[in-house]
Amino acid sequence: MSKKIKILLVDDEPDILEFMEYNLIKEGYDVILGKNGKEAVDLARLEKPDLIILDIMMPVMDGIEACRQIRNTPGLKDVLIAFLTARNEDYSQIAGFDVGADDYIGKPIKPRVMLSRIKALLRRLNGVHSEVTTKIGGIEIDREKYLAFRDGNAISFPRKEFELLALLTSKPGKVFTRDDILARVWGNDVVVGDRTIDVHIRKIREKLGDESIKTVKGIGYKFDI
Amino acid sequence: MSKKIKILLVDDEPDILEFMEYNLIKEGYDVILGKNGKEAVDLARLEKPDLIILDIMMPVMDGIEACRQIRNTPGLKDVLIAFLTARNEDYSQIAGFDVGADDYIGKPIKPRVMLSRIKALLRRLNGVHSEVTTKIGGIEIDREKYLAFRDGNAISFPRKEFELLALLTSKPGKVFTRDDILARVWGNDVVVGDRTIDVHIRKIREKLGDESIKTVKGIGYKFDI
DNA sequence: ACCCGTGCTTAACAATTTCATAACATAGTG
DNA sequence: CACTATGTTATGAAATTGTTAAGCACGGGT
C-alpha cells in the first residue's frame, strides 16, 4: 500500500479493542489504541490518524465530547470520525452528527461489515485528498493513472517506485528524510535494510533519465529541478 | 440535449406525492411514483431512475429497507438515493447513513430547497455516470443495452463482466484498485475470493480480443488504449 | 418438479513481476 | 586519509496475477 493508513481506535472495553485491533491489523491498517475520551484527544493530536473510531460511552470523557475537542483541534478538522454505538442505545443521545461524525458503526460488531464500512469511509477521504496530478520540471505525475509523463510519453513504475516518486514530487524542493520515506512509503512498522531506499531511488532516476532527484547527504532526498 | 432525468418518488401520503410531483414535472423531470417500499424496489429495478427519493416511514416496507435492497441490486449500486425525513427523526438520519443514502430532504418540504438539493445531487451524478454510452479505442459500451460493440458487432457480457468493463471504461486510464472494483461491482458487504476479479478480467479480455485492459501490479486494473 | 444451460465463484497450480538484500564500489566530509 | 553515507548490481525470495477446470446456484423451459 501507499502510506499505511492509520486508525485510532478508542473503547473502554479491552475485549472489543482487541477484537477490532486484530481485524484491522489483519487488513493492513496501522492501529493505535486508546481507552477513554481523554486519550482519544491526546492520541489524535499526537498521531494525526486518518480515521478515528470512538466508542460513545466511556469513562473520563465520552466519545461525543472527545469528538468535539478533536474537531476543534487545528489540523484535525477533516479527520474522519466514526462512532461505535450499541444498537439499543438511545439514538437521540447519539446526535453525533451534530458534532461532526462521519459514520457510526453498530455493536455487536461484525468484522466484515466493519471493514467494508471503513473502506467506504476511506474511499471518501481519497476523493477529497490531494491533487491527482503534479507537474514539475518537465515531468508530470498522474496519481490516478499511476504514470509519469515526460513530453507526453508515459513512463511506468512499479508500485513502490511510483509511490516514492509521488511522495517526493508531492512537495518539490522539500527534503524527505529516510525515516520519513520509510514511514510513508513502506509503513510505520516495516523494517527494511539500509540500501533498499537507494535501490529504488536509483531505478527512478534511471527511468526519469535526469537529475531531478537530489541526494542530501546525511538527511535524505528531494525532488528539485 | 440529454435524456430526460428520471426520478422515482416514493411516499405513502398522496398529498406529498402530488405536491412534489407537480414541482418536479414543472422542472422538466420525468417522475415515477410509488407508495411504499416494496413498490420502490420494484420500480427502481424496472425503471432504473437517476434519482430515488424515499420516505422513511412507509407501510409494507420502510425506506431504509427499500434503500438496502435497491443498493443490493446489480446495476443500481450507484443510483442516487435521498431520504425524506421529518425534522426531529435523529434515528432516521443515522440509520439512513448506514445503508448508503446520498442526501436527506427534511419535511416540511419547501419546493425551492428541494429542487436545489436535487440539482446538487444530480450534478454529482454528472461527473460520473451520466453517459449511457462510452466510445473508447474501437469499442463502444452501451450501459443501457448491456452490450459492447466493436466495429458495429455486438459483444455480449454476463452481468458482472459487463459491470466490471463498464466501470473500467467509465474513466479510461484511471487505475481502479481491487478494493474499488469489489466495492463498486460486487458491493460493499460482499466478500469474494482473491482470484474472482482476475477470472472476470480474463474473460473480458478474451471477449474483447485485445490488450486494452492493463494490469497494474499491486494496485489494480485500468482500461487504456 | 426436473433438466439444462449460464453465470459466478473457488481452488489449485503456473507464470510473472516486484522487492529486499548482500556484497562491493564510489563519493562526500572532516 | 579514514570513515561514513550513498550508489550499483545481480540474484533469489516473496508477492501478485494469470489460467484452468470444476462445482454450485439459479432461472427458464418442458
Reconstruct the topology from this structure.
Two copies of one chain form a homodimer.
Chain A: E1 6-10, H1 14-26, E2 30-34, H2 37-47, E3 51-55, H3 63-71, E4 80-86, E5 103-107, H4 111-128, E6 133-136, E7 139-142, E8 147-150, E9 153-156, H5 159-170, E10 175-177, H6 178-186, H7 196-208, E11 213-216, E12 220-223
Parallel strand pairs in A: 1-2, 1-3, 3-4, 4-5
Antiparallel strand pairs in A: 6-7, 7-8, 8-9, 10-12, 11-12
Helix pairs in contact in A: 2-3, 5-6, 5-7
Chain A binds a DNA duplex (30 and 30 nucleotides) through residues 158-161, 192-202, 215, 217-218.
Descriptive notes:
The structure is a homodimer of 225-residue chains. By secondary structure, chain A is α/β, with parallel strands linked by helices. The first copy, chain A, has two domains: 6-128, 3-Layer(aba) Sandwich (Rossmann fold), CATH 3.40.50.2300; 133-223, Winged helix-like DNA-binding domain superfamily/Winged helix DNA-binding domain (Arc Repressor Mutant, subunit A, Orthogonal Bundle), CATH 1.10.10. Chain A has helices at 14-26, 37-47, 63-71, 111-128, 159-170, 178-186, 196-208; strands at residues 6-10, 30-34, 51-55, 80-86, 103-107, 133-136, 139-142, 147-150, 153-156, 175-177, 213-216, 220-223. Chain A has a five-stranded parallel sheet, with helices on both faces. A four-stranded antiparallel sheet of chain A has the order 6-7-8-9, with helices on one face. Chain A is elongated. The A-B interface holds A 91-92, 94-97, 103-104, 106, 112-113, 116-117, 119-120, 123, 144-146, 158-159 and B 90-91, 93-94, 97-98, 171, 173-175, 179-180, 183, 188-189, 191, 216-219, 222, 224. Chain A binds a DNA duplex (30 and 30 nucleotides) through helix 5 and helix 7.
